[in-house]
Amino acid sequence: VDILCGIGIRKVACGTQFSVALTKDGHVYTFGQDRLIGLPEGRARNHNRPQQVPVLSGVFVEDVAVGAEHTLALSSAGDVYAWGSNSEGQLGLGHTNHIREPTLLTSLQGKNIRQISAGRCHSAAWTAPPAPPRAPGVSVPLQLGLPDTIPPQYGALKEVSIHTVRARLRLLYHFSDLMYSSWRLLNLSPNNQSSTSHYNAGTWGIVQGQLRPLLAPRVYTLPMVRSIGKTMVQGKNYGPQITVKRISTRGRKCKPILVQIARQVVKLNASDLRLPSR
């Protein structure tokens, strides 16, 4: 997009028929469906090219969030602006009328909003600052609460101090992060390794299952997710056509559906049976 070149784009968000770009100096550019890009009718004629939203030109915008057909903008002063479709009241203005240009949400003024988000037909705002981003394999302090006592459902830990439990949990999450970033280096095939091998001793517990309960869910399900992903066809949302007859013709009874499908599937190429990309 040549118009946005060289101006320092910080964030890009996309709705169903429009896009929003936020620059590093707090300006908002939009393009797409003219009724959803926050521009007055006179300037919406060039909606197929990025244009700066004039209502927000005097505001330093910290963040933008996009739903299906509505947009939120958060200013450095903690104010929230909204525009677009409002059929479900997702703009938070107390009515359901469509809003063409950014409108200040007076109900959130003075609340020092620090985060915003938008779903298909709903919006949310937080006064709490966003959590720092976490990168796999990089140790960062966990944002964990510290209860006064061990919850009763964890009877095995009732004799362990809260601080010890917290330290153990941080260690397990750090171990999970290391596994997440290096799992490709491990031989996870049980047919190609031996439990007596010193080299494979570290991964045997993962293959056999002893260590899996100690790993975060995103880690122990990762190999399966990646394997399923390899069976999918990128950029394709349909599969081979299979014809099933359910109505008898000329007095001839139809074969069972499973039989009809099986007779056609065996004649197809294996590559055509891969799942389409979701």
From TrEMBL:
RCC repeats lie at residues 26-77, 78-129. Pfam families: RCC1. InterPro entries: RCC1/BLIP-II, Reg_chr_condens, Signaling_Regulatory_Domain. Keywords: Repeat. It comes from the Eukaryota. PANTHER family: BTK-BINDING PROTEIN-RELATED (PTHR22872), E3 UBIQUITIN-PROTEIN LIGASE HERC1-RELATED (PTHR22872:SF6). This is Uncharacterized protein.
